[in-house]
Amino acid sequence: MRMGEGADRKDLDRELEAFIKDFQSVSRQFVRRQLTWFRSDPVFRWVQAADRAKAVEELEEAIGKEEQEFLRMYDEEEERRKRREERGKRIGDKLKGRKEKVGRERGGE
Description:
mainly alpha
């Protein structure tokens, strides 16, 4: 070992140790931010997995509710689409009737 090599090695070891501690700290902070974000987002469901049977039951219930809600929303959107189509057809029929009336009036003059 050359002179000064031991001191350099110790400095590197301390730097590496400091880096690892900083990295661990920043990683934990990042995880906490992610958990806060996920918990506040209603898209995600939190289930306690300690009791597996209960967790499966909760998930099945949530999936069933979400499916029912999706189908309800889909049906409502389909009804809105049909009403828009019917309204558009009525407006089109009125415009067609007016066009024919104007044509008769002009032709009858």
